[in-house]
Write a structure and sequence with these properties.
about 70% helix, 2 strands, mainly alpha, O-antigen polymerase, two-stranded antiparallel ribbon, about 350 residues, membrane
């Protein structure tokens, strides 16, 4: 399974996938940069202009985040010792620099933060560099704060108070939003959905225009609907998987869903222990499952399935190789070949 989590991705694919982001930068964000901070990263103020780009923008940002994750792992896995000098002279580091810079300017902290955090922290734990782990983790938290206030930095108006305020809004939001969802659900006397949001989540890869189940019962869209918001303009309320369990099955769901999800995660962990090539890959896989499956499901419920599928799809794409055998080009799935896993 190593080549599913470690890959040296080609520049052609990276540039191709970054085009939608730069189109949005040029056409949507830069014209209002001086008047907006990165807090308007969802482009609420220019939503009508942004909507045509949104599907490609979302796909692009998640794809580049996945590639950054694979590229960092490749760099760390390829060298027994990583030094600052090697970073400067290694050509592949330029890919990581480009990916990090591009994601930084989107201000989507999750897509930038998760590959950096998972890969670097897993590597430091693997190497047992505890002091470096503390300093690196602190730096990554600071980086998140700076990315949320970049235009203020340019203007020279950055303050510690405002930075801490923007960071505080990033944590425990889902618990607060849970109370709002429960209020709207009970106040509107809505009927239990009996699993409709979970089915909508599984089929969320089908566009909303031709998927009425997703349009009405995707969990984030559903929270917008019951709160009298336009689901095409309002992103919904991150109200934890507990909120989704309740609106589907009531108190029975609050008990049953966590048990089923815990069993599912436990089975995944058994498979990780079985197929991890070494401790570094093991730590990377465990952190990846936590960030890409456990935390998103906790915050967003089944709405996270689409982004999870996008991530896995690009991991698989990056794990494909074209090899020449007997003068014929063959598409090879590298992470399914044991010999490639050892190389």
């Amino acid at each position: 399974m190593k080549n599913l989590f470690v890959a040296d991705v080609s520049w052609v694919l990276i540039i191709l996938l970054s085009v939608p982001l730069y189109l949005v930068f040029i056409n949507i964000y830069i014209p209002v940069f001086e008047d907006r901070t990165f807090i308007s990263k969802y482009f609420q103020d220019r939503l009508a202009d942004f909507i045509p780009y949104r599907p490609f923008y979302t796909l692009s940002i998640n794809a580049l985040s996945t590639i950054l994750f694979l590229q960092i792992n490749y760099f760390l896995f390829s060298f027994k010792r990583v030094s600052f000098t090697k970073l400067l002279i290694n050509k592949k580091f330029l890919k990581m620099f480009f990916l990090t810079g591009t994601l930084f300017f989107t201000a989507k902290r999750g897509q930038l933060y998760y590959p950096l955090f998972i890969s670097i922290v897993a590597y430091l734990i693997y190497k047992r560099h505890l002091v470096k782990l503390v300093f690196t983790s602190s730096f990554l938290v600071i980086l998140v704060g700076l990315s949320r206030n970049f235009s203020e930095i340019v203007k020279g108006e950055l303050s510690l108070e405002h930075t801490l305020m923007t960071l505080s809004t990033s944590f425990f939001v889902s618990v607060r939003e849970l109370t709002r969802v429960l209020f709207f659900f009970n106040e509107g006397e809505h009927a239990y959905l009996f699993g409709k949001t979970y089915v909508a989540g599984v089929f969320s890869f089908i566009p909303t225009k031709i998927n009425s189940l997703k349009a009405n019962y995707n969990y984030m869209r559903y929270t917008s609907i019951i709160s009298d918001q336009n689901p095409d303009e309002f992103g919904g309320m991150r109200s934890t998987y507990i909120g989704e369990a309740f609106v589907n099955f009531g108190f029975v769901g609050i008990i049953l869903v966590p048990i089923l999800f815990a069993i599912f995660v436990y089975i995944i962990h058994i498979l990780i222990k079985k197929y991890a090539l070494n401790n570094f890959i093991y730590y990377v896989m465990v952190f990846w499952i936590f960030k890409m499956l456990v935390m998103p499901f906790y915050e967003n419920g089944s709405s996270m399935i689409l982004f999870f599928l996008i991530t896995v799809a690009f991991m698989i794409i990056c794990g494909l190789r074209i090899v020449i055998r007997n003068k014929r080009s063959i598409l090879k799935i590298s992470f399914l070949h044991k010999q490639d896993e050892k190389d």
